[in-house]
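The pair is quoted verbatim as follows:
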Amino acid sequence: MAHETKQIRKNGNRKRETSLSERTLSGLGWSYLSTFVKAFLSLLVLVILARLLTPVDFGLLAIAWIFIMLGNRFGQAFVGPAIIQRAELTDAHIQVGFTLSVMIGIVIAAMIWLLAPFIGDFFRESTATQVLQALSIIFVISGIGSVPAHLLRRDLRFKELMVADVLAYSIGYGLTAIVLAVQGYGVWSLVWGEIMHRAIHAAMTVRYTRMRLYPRWALREATDLLSRGAGFSLARSFEFIARQGGYFVVGRWLGAGALGYFTRADKLILLPRNYVGQSLFHVLFPAMAQRQQGPERLATIYLHGSEVLSLVALPVSAMLFVCAPEIVSVILGGQWGPVVILLQILAVAVLFQMCDILNFAVIGALGAVYRQSWRQGIHAVLVVGGAWYASRWGLEAVVIVIVGAQVLAYLLLTQLTVSLLAVRWRHLLRCCLPALWAGAWAAAALWLTAGQVRAMELPAVPALALELLAWFAALLAALYYAPSYVRPVSVKWALTNIPFEVLGAPGRYMRKGCKWLSRDRSDC
């Protein structure tokens, strides 16, 4: 055992000739491939289930999900992120971390089972009690799979993670949930879909890491992991409360039906963050942790990343706001009309949700999670307290308060990030100019096109297609013909610093696209 403890895994010390930049870009490629496949599957499943299930079914799951996700964030965040962030990792750390994760999962599962009747009574939904008790098993499953999944992320093995994610989601929701929904199982189709999803994902990550699943205890390693993990757990718990606090208030004071509308709007608005920004975080966090001794390098990545993310987020925000009626009609169907106004309000926060991904990656990589925690604590208090106060004016007022709290939280976290990296605010604001330029032109073209297609009373699908075509064409034209003071500077930086050839044919097309945007097309 003593010999095993001395075997150290250093960040980035893998037996490969590829550089960290190449491995990071490769990880991004696989992560985004997984993102696009999962986004397609998620939309397909959402379209089908929205027509097979009722808003009350989704609302019941959302009530249970508030507490499931709280326990999930608390349990997994205690060990997994500490394994990624630690510069040196021994086999003892891994085995002790696995033991801690399983123990925490069992404890949380028992707590959820015992508290489920009280939670059901609080929300005045007896079915929520049974749903919570059935879903409590996923804490044990997640405890088994947490350390293997985080080891894959630490080593930037996103190809294996992509296979596990896609296969688990396809079997869990794409097969199990839909088959049960067709047979009339209602909310239980979602419950069993999630259980199957978690079980398959855990089994595959264990297989890829070839971990030996046996308990082990060592006080020094346990103390090290828990001291690091406590900060991550506290920060993510507050983040979760801020994310789910609105669900809690709406479910308790406005009912399961209103919560069903709110969750569907939130699900749509989170697609850019979950399937673009979140994939970026999963790669950048371990990659930045390996560069934590060079903050000047992190500052450069942060500024260029902010420019790129804002350039994506602001036009997407405008598109979601203007196209909300057609999006809801095409994806959810006619029975979900109240979701339109909620989607338009939430669209305002897309920019801040996306750019926060970089804040989380930098703060986590540098280990400043306790300073992050109190900021997210303020966010959580504002969401829960503000949503409760606004609930007397209805669901729209609650959503407005939640968006306002998200904007303030972004400013607080950005202040911490720029102080850690010694970045000036004016440099960060300069990064937003290309997004403001391109977003304004894209929004104007989209608004004019939407007015025309609605006047023609076209069906929702062709109307949405025409709107998206005009939006995309205006966005490309605005970028290409942008004057020098609003032209993206990240394009030329990417051409010099990013090894696109790692991605093969897609990388070559990305390089050509960068040259086209920079107007340096001599080598194309």
